[in-house]
Amino acid sequence: MATTVAVPPDTSQDPDTAALIDAGTLSRPHRTRVPLPRWLRRLAGPALVVAVWQLLGTLGQINPRILATPSQVAVAAWQLTSDGELGTNLLASLQRVVVGLAIGVSAGVLLAVLAGLFRLGEELIDSTMQVVRALPVLGLLPLVIIWFGVGEQPKIALVVFAAACPVYINTYAGIRGVDNRLVESGRVVGLGRLGLIRHVVLPGAVPGFLVGLRFALTSAWLVIIIAEQLNATSGIGYLMNQAQAWYRTDIIVLGLLIYGLLGLLADSLVRLLERRLLVWRHGFNGA
């Protein structure tokens, strides 16, 4: 019994058909995709959480005295903004965090440079900082109040302490983590001690500093939440503490959202610095 084998048509003699096949014009037409901006895709997750949260509140599954709905939080934000109370307290919190970060980050960088570049500095500073960073920040609150009273100084002091330690640890690790082959290459091309520090060591420590700065920003906002709820007359933490007495969960949630948004904004600023200062580094961006 003869077997019939289907033989595809020979297109080797037809250059036009072969060109069409190679170009993919005979294949199935593809759809044109319109890519969404990355920031919009990143908002999809939080937006879904807010939608579910609002739905559960509308259906009565969440007691508003326990957790206010997003719409109630929005109404509270509008009321506090209209009478100026929100802006005044937000400005007070920002001032405390900015001053504390300026002092803490500067102190952390200075100590890290001294400990990272000089052996004597390492022996005098590093062991002390390792002990200090193990201390609980909020555990120092009673002692800080005794030292500075109940005004602005204890709140700023706690932010300084919370910011200085992560900046020191990561900057110091960045300095000591510079590849020694780069240092040797710098010596080969004629760089002296100051030239090595300026062109090799300090630029190589920038990634570590930025990691420390990111942790410092987060720690500063965490600390100021507690500091402003004790012996304070202004600030977002003070506003939340006052709302607790009246079971105003809408204001409490609003304060938490403000802290979260400020932390996200601060992290975005650090990411911008990374893109500007680390243009020479190409890392993995995800598959």
TrEMBL record:
Residue span(s) of domain ABC transmembrane type-1: 86-270
Transmembrane segments: 97-118, 130-150, 156-175, 196-226, 246-266
Keywords, sorted A to Z: Cell membrane, Membrane, Transmembrane, Transmembrane helix, Transport
One protein family per Pfam: BPD_transp_1
Localization (cell): Cell membrane
Topology of this chain in the membrane: Multi-pass membrane protein
Highest taxon of the lineage: Bacteria
Stored PANTHER family: ALIPHATIC SULFONATES TRANSPORT PERMEASE PROTEIN SSUC-RELATED (PTHR30151:SF38), ALKANE SULFONATE ABC TRANSPORTER-RELATED, MEMBRANE SUBUNIT (PTHR30151)
Family: Belongs to the binding-protein-dependent transport system permease family.
Name the UniProt record assigns to this protein: ABC transporter permease
Organism name: Streptacidiphilus cavernicola
Lineage: Bacteria, Bacillati, Actinomycetota, Actinomycetes, Kitasatosporales
